[in-house]
Amino acid sequence: MDRRTLLTTLAATAAAAAAPWARAQNYPEQLIKWVVPYPAGGGTDVIARTLAEAMRQTLGQQIVIDNRPGASTNIGADLVAKSKPDGYTIMSADNAVLAFNEYLFSKLPFNPEKDFSYIGAIGKFPLALVVHPDFPAKDFKAFLAYVKANPGKVNYASPGNGSPHHLAMEMFKNRTGTFITHIPYRGAAPAMADVMGGQVPCMFLDLASGLPIMQGQKVRVLAIGSGARSKLLPDVPTLAEVGVPNTEVFAFQGILGPAGLPAPVVSKLNTELNRAFSVPAVQKRFSDFGMEAMPGTPQQFAALSRAESKRWGPIIKSAGIKLD
C-alpha cells in the first residue's frame, strides 16, 4: 500500500469512528423508545410516562413507552442490553434488574454491571411494615415480641417471590432473628386486600401502592424502612429508631441504556432527567406516590446500584430464594 492510499484509509477509518460521536452532539434527532419492563398502568409505568412527557418538552423529540413485562424484568432488560447504543432505546430499571436478579436466577442473558450505561437515578419508594388493625400487637415492640413468641405461626404477604417487599421482610427476619412465613401473591393489590381483610396479618408495603390505606388507617403502620421519617407519615418511626439498625429497605428506579452510549448522549439524558424533577406535574406525581426524587450523576446511580447488589446478595443467598 502506497503512502497516499494509507493516508486515505486512515482518514476514512477515523471519520467512520468519529461519526457516532458527531451524531451524538446533535442528539436526539429521532423518536426515543423508553422500555418499561412491567405492564401498563403500574407505578413504574406511570412514573416513566410522567417523566417522558416532561423530558420530551426540552429534548424536542417524542418519547414512546414500550411495555415489555415478563421474567421479573429480564425480558425488557435483555432487549435494551442488546439494543444499538445510540440513545434511542432506554429503560426504567429497578431493584430487580440492578440488585436482585443476578442472585435470584442461576443465569441471566445479560450482565447488570457490564451490559448497560447508567444514565441517572429516578427515585425511591420507602417500604413500611404494616399490620391489620386488629392484629394483637399495637406497636413495633409488641409486634417483635409476638412474632418471636410464635415462630412460624405468623404469615406475611408480598406481591410475589423476589419482589422488594418479599426481600424486605427477609432482611427484617435476618436482622431480628425471627421466623415469619411468606405468602406470595400475584401483585400488590391482592396482597394488600388480604392484609386489609385480615386473611394475612402483615407485610412490607411500599408507599406508592399503600399510602392511601396507610393514611386511611385501613392498616396500622409500625415502622418505615427509610433513613429518616417520611414527611407523609411523620408519626411513624424508622426501623433504626425502633432498634433494628442497618435495615433500610426501599424500591428504587433509574434509567439505563445499552453499554457504550456516547458520553454526550448520557450527559444530555441525565441533564434532562434532573431538570424534570422540578416540573410541577412530576413533583405532584412523585408526591402522590410517596416517591423521593434522587437527582444526581450517572456515576452516583451506578454506585448506588452496585452497593444495593452487594447489600442484598447475602440476604437472598441465606434465604435460599431462586426464581428458576
Key terms for this structure?
324 residues, alpha/beta, D-Maltodextrin-Binding Protein, domain 2, 3 domains, ten-stranded mixed β-sheet, 11 helices, 10 strands
Which H/E pattern describes the elements?
HEHEHEHEHEHEHEHEEHHEH
CATH 2nd-level architecture of the largest domain: 3-Layer(aba) Sandwich
Helix percentage range? 40-55%
Low-confidence stretches: none
Number of domains: 3
Structural class: alpha/beta
CATH topology of the largest domain: D-Maltodextrin-Binding Protein, domain 2
Number of strands: 10
The amount of beta strand, in percent, is 15-25%
Helical element count? 11
Radius of gyration: 22 Å
Q: What form results from the Cα inertia axes? A: elongated
Which CATH first-tier class of the largest domain would you pick? Alpha Beta
Calculate the terminal CA-CA distance, rounded to whole Å. 56 Å
- Summarize model confidence as the mean pLDDT: 92
